[in-house]
Nucleotidase (Robertmurraya kyonggiensis), 190 residues
Amino acid sequence: MRKKFGIDIDGTVTSPDTIVPYMNQDFGLSLTYSDIKEYDLSVHVDIPQAEFAKWWLDNEAKIYKASPLTKEVKNVLREWELIHDLYFISARSKHLLELTNEWFVKQDLPFHHIELIGSHDKVNAAKQYEVDIFFEDKHDNAVAICEQCNIPVILFNTPYNQDPVPDGVVRVHSWSEAKAWVDKWLKENA
C-alpha cells in the first residue's frame, strides 16, 4: 500500500555538518561537527543573536545551494519514489523554493512535493499532507510530530539531538538503517 513520507531536508537529506565550515570561515572558529551540541548555532559565536540571524539570512541561499547530500539518501529515496509519495517539508523560507527545486534537480533526487513552511513547526504540514511517517533531525520537531500526528518519526542521530525520545520516535544513524526500520514497519502495517 502506497504511503506518504514526510521528509525534512536540512540535516536529514543534506549532510548535518554542512554549515560548520561556513561558520568557521566567517567567525574565525575551529568547530567540528561533534562540537555542535545544540540546534541553535548562535550559541557558538560571540555576537548578538540578531547579528547571527542577519549572517544566516545573508548566507542561507549560498549554503543551501552548495549543501552536500547525506550518505545513502539518494539510493533509498530512488527506491521509495516508485512505491511511496515523497513529501519534503522544510523550515526553509518560501522564497527559497526555486533554489530548493533546482538543488533537487541538480542532485537528481526524486520528490513528489516540496513544501517550505518558513517555520520549524511542521505538525500542521504533516497533518495537512496526511503523511504516514516523518524523517527529521531536530529533536523537538520529531517529538511534536510523533505525539501530535500519532505517526512514527525517524530521528537521524546527531550531536545536537541527544535528548531522550518517546516511543514512536526511532533514532537511526544512517539512511540504510532508516530503510531497514521502514521496511519492517511497512510489512507489519500492510
Q: What stands out?
A: The beta strands are 4-7, 85-90, 113-116, 133-136, 153-156, 169-172. The radius of gyration is 16 Å.
